[in-house]
Amino acid sequence: MRNPITKMHFPAQIILLGKFQDALKDIVGKRILVVGSSRSVALADWSALFPQAEVTVFSGSLPHTPALVLNQSTVLAKAFKPDIIIGIGSGSAIDLVKGVLDSVPATFIAIPTSLGGGEMTNVYGIRTVSGTKEGKGGRQYLASTVIYDPELLESLPRHELAASGINSWAHCIEAFYSVKSNWFGKSAAMQAGRMWPTLLKQSYGKPLDGTIRLQLFEAASLAGFSINACGLGLHHAVCHVVGGATGLTHGVINAIALPKTLAINREMAPQAIRLVEEAFRVNDIVALSQELIDTLQLPRSLNSLGVSWKTMEPLTDSLMAAHHLKFNPAALDRDRAQRLMHAVFTGNL
């Protein structure tokens, strides 16, 4: 019997480092749509940047890309008919552009201001009106150009930077233990996975110098590349289910869930977790994850944020059906799923 073919995608992108205004000087377009939040789009005078083009700005990006926001931005894009769409902001802003591309094909330029790594992936998710996260994937959603401007991290509040960094570290962990093979993705996950604990400690409560800011984006970019290559698992299945139901920001949910999902995966797939620890040069990744979250003063439980058990109780069924579980190193049983959701709610496994 022949072994199945292993397919490893290595999509082409242009990655630029430096001041984003300078990087955009060579961009030629007739109609440019800028998409982001009110905070992120205020980082530039877009009409002045593109004096020869017609420019329109959509500033309504929100966490988890609600379906209503996607509809509003799509209506604007259909009327404006851009040839270039620039997404500037967090992963939600970048996901919003990907959603718009379903209806309005255009050249996609991503300028991240956080550490989620969505600029390196060809998937996106939205929050539906019924409180679920739904996603799509395809090469058409991959930004053709990514601009990393380290100075933009100065605009990110420190608690958001910490939560965003934990999310990126979780990307590395999940990509590395994923059952999906990709040499490049595993190598990227290992490199960034080693970087993140030190970077998070160095960047907490201190001024960020240029070297640290560049390293933060390097680790985030590698982590984003790794999940695009290798996929996600149990941890992000939990985060997306909870995010859809509660609307809490993705980074904060990551911080609450990571020690618990790692502990459950260590029960089910101890060898896979041990391989992560060896690759990342960590003795106990469950303990380290909790130590980092406590050091960064991120929350431990959903109930501490006002989420009710009534909201959480039905989510076990949603978790058991989550598509990310297909790449997890072990199958999740219902008993563990219930324990895990209760632990995310209370803070105790």
UniProtKB/TrEMBL annotation:
Entry's Gene Ontology molecular function annotations: alcohol dehydrogenase (NAD+) activity; metal ion binding
Record domain Fe-containing alcohol dehydrogenase-like C-terminal: where: 162-343
Species of origin: Advenella kashmirensis
Name of this protein: Uncharacterized protein
Segments traversing the membrane: none
Keyword DNA repair belongs to the record: no
Keywords attached to this entry: Oxidoreductase
Protein's UniProt keywords contain Hydrolase: no
Domain Alcohol dehydrogenase iron-type/glycerol dehydrogenase GldA: 19-150
Pfam family for this entry, one: ADH_Fe_C
SUPFAM superfamilies according to UniProt: Dehydroquinate synthase-like
